[in-house]
C-alpha cells in the first residue's frame, strides 16, 4: 500500500524536487502527425462546433487543439528527458505513485493550419511543496511547453499534474443529515430553462435569425451571433452519444458508481444528465433513452434525467 511522504523526509524531499525547476522535460519533440483535416473534423464533431473557419481551403485548426498535435498517443514520445524521468521516479519513491491532471493554460501566437508540422520543447516550470488534498498528499508539477512550426513560436502550453500518495479513506455513509444535493445555479442566462423544468418541459433555445437550435442555453447564437431567440420543447427522445461512469471522488448525497451520459436529443442538440433505469455498467453508446423528471430530495427542484432500456427487457 502506498504511504504518504513522511514529515521527516518532507523538507529534504522538497529541496531535491525544487532542484528540477528549469530543467528540460521534453527536448526536440516532433508531432507524430502534421496538422490535418480529419483530426480537426473529429474534434469539431465531438464538440458540436460547426464554425466555417475550421473547414475549406482556408481552414485553421481550433486553437484549443494546440496540445493535440504534440501528444504521443499510446506509444508515447522518445524525447522525454532523463531529468523528467528522474523527477517522476523520485516522487514514486516517496510514495506518490498516483497521478491526476489538474489544469492547463494555453497561449496562442498564430493559427495552425493543415500541413503544419509542429515541434516542441518543454521544461519543468515549478514543483510545489507537499500539499494535502482529498485524493491524498502529494506535489504539483507544472511543465511549460513551447510549440513551434518551422522554428516560429505558435503557442505555449502549461500543464499541471498532481503526483500523490492515495488516501484510503472509508466510504462515506448516508447517515449525515447534512448530506444534501447542491441546488442548480440559476442566472439570467438560464432562468428560462429552469422555468421550463419546473413545468416538466425540456426547452431548447432557437435563434430567430438563422433558426439554429442550441443547448446549453447561451445569451447569443453560436452560429450567427444574433441575440434574439425563442424556445422549442424537446420531444424527450434521445440516444446515448457518450458516457462516463462516476466512481471517485465520492460526494455527499451521491452514491457512486453511477452513469452520466452525453445525450443526443432527437432535435440534434446534446445535454449532459444521469442515465437511469439500467445498471451503470450496462449503459452503451447508441442506447435509446427517454426523458423523465426526478426529484431526488424534498425541497429540491425536479431534474431532467434519461431512462434507458436494455434490449429485450423492460426498464426498471
Briefly, what is this?
The protein is mainly beta. It has helices at 10-18, 37-47, 82-93, 191-198, and strands at 24-30, 98-108, 118-127, 131-132, 136-149, 152-166, 203-207, 213-214, 229-233, 237-246, 258-265, 270-276, 288-294, 303-308.
Description of the molecule:
This protein is mainly beta. The chain has two domains: 10-166, Thiol Ester Dehydrase, Chain A, CATH 3.10.129.10; 191-308, no CATH class. It is 13% helix and 34% strand. The protein is built from four helices and 14 strands. The chain has helices at residues 10-18, 37-47, 82-93, 191-198; strands at 24-30, 98-108, 118-127, 131-132, 136-149, 152-166, 203-207, 213-214, 229-233, 237-246, 258-265, 270-276, 288-294, 303-308. Strands 1, 2, 3, 4, 5 and 6 form a six-stranded antiparallel β-sheet that branches. A hairpin with a 3-residue loop joins β4 and β5 (136-149). The longest helix is centred in the first third of the chain and has 12 residues, at 82-93. It starts with 9 loop residues before the first helix and ends in an 8-residue tail after the last strand. Mean pLDDT is 89; it is low at 1-8.
Architecture (CATH level 2) name of the largest domain: Roll
SSE string: HEHHEEEEEHEEEEEEEE
Largest sheet: 6 strands, antiparallel
The first-level CATH class name of the largest domain: Alpha Beta
State the shape: globular
CA-atom Rg in angstroms: 24 Å
Amino acid at each position: 500500500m502506498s504511504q504518504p511522504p513522511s514529515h521527516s523526509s518532507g523538507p529534504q524531499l522538497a529541496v531535491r524536487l525544487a532542484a528540477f525547476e528549469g530543467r528540460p522535460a521534453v527536448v526536440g519533440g516532433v508531432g507524430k502527425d502534421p496538422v490535418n483535416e480529419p483530426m480537426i473534423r473529429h474534434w469539431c464533431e465531438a464538440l458540436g462546433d460547426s464554425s466555417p473557419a475550421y473547414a475549406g481551403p482556408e481552414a485553421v485548426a481550433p486553437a484549443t487543439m494546440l496540445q493535440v498535435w504534440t501528444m504521443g498517443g499510446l506509444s508515447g514520445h522518445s524525447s522525454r528527458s532523463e531529468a523528467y524521468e528522474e523527477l517522476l521516479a523520485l516522487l514514486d519513491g516517496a510514495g506518490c505513485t498516483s497521478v491526476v491532471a489538474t489544469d492547463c493554460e494555453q497561449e496562442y501566437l498564430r493559427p495552425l493550419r493543415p500541413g503544419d508540422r509542429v515541434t516542441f520543447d518543454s521544461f519543468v516550470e515549478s514543483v510545489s511543496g507537499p500539499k494535502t488534498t482529498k485524493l491524498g498528499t502529494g506535489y504539483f508539477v507544472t511543465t511549460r511547453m513551447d510549440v513551434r512550426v518551422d522554428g516560429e513560436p505558435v503557442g505555449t502550453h502549461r500543464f499541471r499534474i498532481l503526483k500523490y500518495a492515495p488516501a484510503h479513506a472509508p466510504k462515506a455513509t448516508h447517515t449525515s443529515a447534512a448530506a444534501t444535493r447542491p441546488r442548480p445555479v440559476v442566472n439570467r442566462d438560464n432562468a428560462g430553462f429552469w422555468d421550463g423544468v419546473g413545468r416538466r418541459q425540456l426547452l431548447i433555445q432557437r435563434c430567430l435569425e438563422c433558426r439554429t437550435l442550441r443547448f446549453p442555453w447561451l445569451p447569443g447564437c453560436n452560429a450567427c451571433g444574433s441575440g434574439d431567440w425563442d424556445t422549442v420543447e424537446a420531444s424527450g427522445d434521445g440516444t446515448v452519444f457518450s458516457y462516463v461512469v462516476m466512481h471517485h471522488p465520492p460526494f455527499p448525497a451521491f452514491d457512486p458508481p453511477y452513469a452520466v451520459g452525453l445525450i443526443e436529443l432527437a432535435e440534434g442538440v446534446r445535454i449532459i444528465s444521469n442515465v437511469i433505469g439500467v445498471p451503470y455498467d450496462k449503459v452503451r453508446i447508441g442506447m435509446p433513452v427517454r426523458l423523465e423528471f426526478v426529484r431526488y430530495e424534498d425541497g429540491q427542484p425536479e431534474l431532467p434525467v434519461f431512462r434507458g432500456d436494455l434490449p429485450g427487457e423492460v426498464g426498471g
